[in-house]
Amino acid sequence: RLNTQQLNLFGDGEYSSTADSASLDVTTAATWEVWGNFYGVPATTEVLFNKYNVTNSNRSWIFQKNPAQLVDEIGFSVSNDGNFSTLGSIAGVQDKIQCLSVTLSGGVYVAYLDAQVVTLTGAIDTTVFASDEPVMIGVQGDILSFAARAIGSAKIYNVALTADEVLTNYNTQKSLYGL
Asked: Across-strand partners of 16?
């Protein structure tokens, strides 16, 4: 499990990295949670939160913004073999600090935006490759694709949280941010 309370990366080249650990190798059950302002269309791809390395075919999962997405979308991608992944998309982000959570259980993904279920489009792999890459927040290490937006915190659980647990986490973190 990874928990980065009050990370406060402001999108100006700041990033955080956590070394690989067996507890971060989620494969069939997981919850990813990231807080930030995800609105807008970047000039180049911005990597928000990932365990992903294209150069050495060591891809696991990634949250990103890319120029092909709409202003209110964020991309989420998972690889089951380390080599290839298909980008999914979550729409509905607004120009404010928000919480994006995605759970995986039994091959089924559920996406939440501010603890409300939202649609995750795309053919996302149902198992996750156990990459030995570090977890990176605010940058993708092999291509130094920095996020040019604020990221407040990021968490990974090696279990799929229930909707009630996602809501509890959201309300707890929301009060910490004074929202």
From this structure: 137
Residue whose token pair is 């995605």? 102
- What does each C-alpha distance from 110 to 34, 76, 117, 133, 153 come to in angstroms? 15, 12, 7, 25, 20
Tokens at residue 134, please? Answer: 């570090």
Asked if 51 and 173 count as a contact pair (C-beta separation under 8 A), the reply is: no
Predicted model pTM:
0.85
Q: Look at residue 77 and give its three-state secondary structure.
A: strand
Look at the chain and count its residues.
179
Residues 6+ apart with CB under 8 A from 115: 99, 101, 163, 166, 167, 169, 170, 171
Average pLDDT over residues 153-179: 89
Q: What Å distances lie between residue 146 and 8, 65, 131, 136, 142, CA to CA?
A: 15, 11, 20, 10, 11
Please tell me the number of Cα atoms within 13 Å of 121 on its side-chain side.
Answer: 7
End-to-end CA distance of the chain: 25
* Tokens 């180049």 belong to residue: 44
How many angstroms from the chain centroid is the CA of residue 140?
12
The yes-or-no verdict on residue 115 having pLDDT over 90 is yes
Distance CA 155, CA 29 (A): 14
